[in-house]
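call fold(seq) -> tokens
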Amino acid sequence: MKFNIITIFPDLITQYCSESILKRAQENKLIEINSINLRDFTEDKHKSVDDTPYGGGPGMVMKPEPIYKALKSIDAIPFRKVDGLTKIKKVFNGSLKKKKRTFLLSPRGKQFNQEMAEKFSKLDEITFVSGRYEGVDQRVVDHMVDEEISIGPYVLAGGELGALVIIEAVSRLVPGMLGNPASLDEETFGLRQPVASSKQQSETQKEYSQYTKPANFKGWKVPDVLLSGDHRRVEEWRKKQF
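ret:
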């Protein structure tokens, strides 16, 4: 699975992705993370990616031209929007054979959740445009991406953290990522764990409390049931946690 992140701070992406499970996944060829410097697609000597907004207002707005060039360089503009070409044209060059999506990180976008992570994990390639400054030219939203997406109802300085959050959440669902695949079945918000009713499906899934050695730390003890060795009782205790 391939992830592309278009950003003016590529080092933020590469540094984070060079650690932990994302590093191992790339070394094992399970995923590919491609950090793309938006300033490489500018033409002026200052490598400007923003300008003042038409109609006035505070702050600066990211320009459409560099974003368009960056997306086009990796064939990440949705097929229905590329230069007004028809779907048939894109079918012939084979790009429809890959399941690809392009997202703009934006606080006004659809809020990302575990259900979306499950869906995204079925894709072949995801491209993120990381916004900065006061916002991004609306033509990027209208013509260059599939959808705006957010990681929560708050505003950050840019979309890089949001992209990293989504990449990690989606990557964990790629086969072979985790040493023990069963970990996905019992974790918080795990959609793979069967539930008893539609009501439970609509409620937030909670993960049961977990303990490790020592059994007694400063007088704070591990529940006796977990020390009993009785797997049936342990399972019943864990189910009562939800």
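The chain has two domains: 2-171, 208-242.
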